[in-house]
Amino acid sequence: MSDPAPAAATVRVEFAASLRRHVDCAPQQVAPGSLRAVLEAALAAAPRLAGYVFDDQRQVRKHVAVFVNQQMVQDRQRLDQPLAAGDQVVVLQALTGG
Question: Is residue 1 part of a domain?
Answer without folding.
Answer: no
